[in-house]
Structures are given as C-alpha cells and as structure tokens.
Amino acid sequence: WPSLFSGIDIIANRITPRHQDQGSCAEAYDLLVSIGEGHDARLDLCDFKASIGYGPGTLVFLTGRVLRHSVAKWSRGERIVVA
Question: 50: which of 16, 20, 22, 58 lies 20 to 30 Å off by Cα?
Fold first, then answer.
C-alpha cells in the first residue's frame, strides 16, 4: 500500500539496546508509536542524558539516525511499538 514512510517495523515486548537507525534519513524525523496495555516503558535519549515516559498512546518524532536511543526493561504490561 502507498506510504510516506520508507519502512515500518513492529516491535513487541522487546527491549531495545542503545542504537542509531542506520536505515533512516539524517535530515528527517522518524515516528515512533507506543501502544500496548498497562506498560511503564521509558525511552532513553542517550545523547541528551534524558529518559521520557513511553507509555501506551505516546507518539515520538526523533532523528533516529542522529540520536542514540534505547528502551530498557519495563516492569509490567505488554509493549508494542510501530516505528
């Protein structure tokens, strides 16, 4: 189907080690959509030494090729991310 995105990943109940998205464009933003049920995951933005709430319903735009980011183990719930 037609999409303005170059690719789509679905991540279910997985931690995400610190990384940069090599397949992304450095000049564009990537959209991350956190869904699931009752989870308390946090998105770590390593270059800013920041950690933000990444619960169900959270949308994040970031330059994934430029910024290192990760998601550590969360304590409860089911986590699904569409990236």
Answer: 22
Instruction: Give pLDDT tens digits for 31-50.
Output: 999 999 999 999 999 999 99
Single out the residue of 46, 21, 50, 38 nearest to residue 74, CA to CA.
Answer: 38
Phi, psi dihedrals of residue 51, rounded to the nearest 5°: -135, 125
Is pTM beyond 0.90? Reply is no
Which DSSP helix (H) or strand (E) runs through 44?
strand 42-45
Q: How far apart are the first and last CA of the chain?
A: 17
The CATH number covering residue 77 comes to: 2.60.120
For residue 2, tell me if it sits in a domain.
Answer: no
